[in-house]
Amino acid sequence: MKHGIFSTLVLALAVSACASGGAFAEPRQLAASPITGVSTGTNFSFDLGIVVGNRYYLSDKSNAAIDVFDTATSVQVGQIKGSGPNAFAGNVKTNGKADIPRSGPNGINAVGSLLYVGDVNSVKIIDPAAKKIIKTIVVGASGTRADEGCVDAVHGLYMISSPEADTPFATVINTATQAVVAQVTFTDSKGKPSGGLEQCRYDPGSDTFYVNNDGTTDNPHGELVAMPGASIRSITPGATVNYTTLAGMREFGLGDCDPTGLALGPNTDVAVGCRPETAGAPLLVLIMNRTTGNIVASVNAGGGDQIEYDVSTNRYYSAASRWNASGKANDHGACSAASPCTPVLAIIDAGTRTLVTQLPSGNNAHSVSVDAVTGKVFMPASSGVSPPGCSTCSNEPARLLTFAAK
């Protein structure tokens, strides 16, 4: 928020929540918490977060750490860093500009009692109880990040994508042995490498890995790829195969989407976040039937990165950092002083597949996590002035925003 009454408003909201016995009447912002090691005016570089138990964990490139927050208070209680080969890459810069493909930490997933975190050429394994990085698994040598992952807890597999490699690929790790068992490359049927890979999810109901593919010859602005788990498990240990050779693989075109976030909803629904690079394209969240690939709803609430589904509220929560009042993409889909954005937390009813509300968030607030126990939503945000291009921001410091989920 850019208003000077910010602190008073947060206090009033907290008092209101307490007065009602902790039950929130409607979605709203509750708090804005400082983040260690990030000063006012800093372009805070972060990626994804996750709630596990009573802790929220955030991938923090600026501090080369995993930031740890208490979910009850939203107060930061620690940072987890490594050293030597277990150190995160941090916020790498090339020619004075952030080099995101060569930075880390990135995506973060809970695997049993551990956390798996993507980093450059590797996956770091964290023991959150010990607050320590206990292992580094090498997944490549391209000098680029392992980005977003997903977990098949039924069969003990973890899949993570390396989207900026010359030929993007996904690495499959056995979570019992913590060893790489296979890799899947992404070159389409016409011989063109994928434009990149985004969020993936595993559906235990259908035994399927889903991943957003940034672009192919047939679908240059993205497609949703469905890969049967049985086909992944049938890969010869240690082998590398291309996704087009996987038995039962399906591709669903997404139109002018340029997909980012992905969340499995109720029944056969799946939500795909679109962040189109085509100026004037509508900013959409597509609700699809993940069995047939049919689009069953197009909600004008896109322009984000991460999307989460919360079963307790039956709602999707989208970190729409590149939303703007027109509901259409800026030039190249980016935010700038000339083409500013108005970042929001978009909340979508998964039952009716319609927009519930959009709440102002913060600069570059592209990551979102939901805690079903406390009924809170966590979104990190950069400082109001860096990166440039937020028309609803002033000079707020980087911070963790907390919202009521309902």
Automatic annotation (TrEMBL):
Keywords: Signal
Family matches, as PROSITE patterns: PROKAR_LIPOPROTEIN
Signal recorded as keyword: yes
Gene3D superfamilies: YVTN repeat-like/Quinoprotein amine dehydrogenase
Leader peptide range in chain numbering: 1-25
Xref: InterPro entries: Haem_d1_sf, WD40/YVTN_repeat-like_dom_sf
Signal is among the record's keywords: yes
Highest taxon listed in the record's lineage: Bacteria
Name of the protein in question: YncE family protein
Species this chain originates from: Polaromonas jejuensis
